[in-house]
Amino acid sequence: MKLAVIPGDGIGTEVTAEAVKVLDAVLPGIEKTEFDFGAERYLRTNDLLTDADVAALREHDAILLGAIGDPRKVAPGVLERGLLLPLRFALDHHVNLRPSRLYPGERSPLAEPGEIDFVVVREGTEGLYTGNGGAIRVGTPHEVATETSMNTRFGVERVVRDAFERAAARRNKLTLVHKTNVLVNGGGLWQRTVTEVSRDYPGVEVDYCHIDAAMIYLVDNPSRFDVIVTDNLFGDIITDLAGAVTGGIGTAASGNIDASGTNPSMFEPVHGSAPDIAGQQLADPTAAILSAVLLLRHLGHEAEAVRVEDAVESFLSNRGEDEMSTPEIGDAIVAAL
Ligand SMILES: NC(=O)C1=CN([C@@H]2O[C@H](COP(=O)(O)OP(=O)(O)OC[C@H]3O[C@@H](n4cnc5c(N)ncnc54)[C@H](O)[C@@H]3O)[C@@H](O)[C@H]2O)C=CC1
Ligand SMILES: CC(C)CC(=O)C(=O)O
Ligand SMILES: [Mg+2]
């Protein structure tokens, strides 16, 4: 396997080291190339994401990423809009896959969490994140700022089909989350697409929630969800809350997938670079390690994926109350393999 590794910024470097440690333990011989994308390189060279970077990444089977963005060093938005999102767009990562599961032994802040096991299929290349919009008269009392959500039939349909496939392979329930009562243009396209594609999946029950109500259900009754399909912004927000109710953001994994298989897919924790705890080895690397599980599974290494997932589960069930450092958690998971 040829693996591109982008540790990135803040705790991205700390948690990625642990995910690599686990990958090396379970699948010896992985050929790794490290890419130094992020704040430091940007400050040194002014490079965000170059054509040569994208070409080099395309030479790999998959990408493991930590986190991009560091507001302590670079203004908010520069690296996110100039590097992280262009990476996802250039490699056509249209399926942003974010599973949420409350593993046995994990602590949820919910009093009665019940069984939580759902997958968010977030559209990854469109919506409000494409950079459509602008600002005029900036800094004056007459400033006007716009961001426009871009939704194409092509983009919506391919991710909706992917979500139906996943629902058909799971518990046969798909929930569209949107805000069709207000966002009538994009929402209308999403709703019609789900209704039309559902005809090809008669065994899948289709549900709909407005985004605001979905936040209630995620806390009150998360078991109602199996597969959630939604746009780029809503999916971003839902999955931080989903992480928080399933043992913490430090355990939430994700995959940015080009389902056509043309480009390498990229696996990363749901969380960001956490500047508040960076540099102290306090971050939980479980999300990065579970992202490596998604990577292994995506590349067909199912046995290795199961081994790591079992090791994580065993670690979570047996961990005590003591605080553990980032490498201590990585080592404990390697030991549990
Ligand atoms: N995919 C990516 O590369 C992402 C990048 N970001 C960027 O990261 C930077 C920081 O963003 P924030 O809004 O602070 O979100 P964040 O996810 O980095 O942190 C939010 C909170 O969660 C905690 N946290 C995050 N990961 C943790 C872990 N593994 N273990 C324990 N605690 C953890 C942090 O300490 C913080 O209190 C920003 O520049 C943002 O744009 C944010 C989200 C995703
Ligand atoms: C910084 C954002 C563009 C990324 C993010 O928060 C996410 O993908 O979850
Ligand atoms: Mg996010």
From TrEMBL:
Name-wise, this protein is: 3-isopropylmalate dehydrogenase
Q: Which GO terms describe its biological process?
A: L-leucine biosynthetic process
Q: In which pathway does it act?
A: Amino-acid biosynthesis; L-leucine biosynthesis; L-leucine from 3-methyl-2-oxobutanoate: step 3/4
List of residues binding substrate: 88, 98, 122, 212
Q: What is its main location?
A: cytoplasm
Q: Isopropylmalate dehydrogenase-like domain spans which residues?
A: 2-333
Q: Which HAMAP family match?
A: LeuB_type2 (MF_01035)
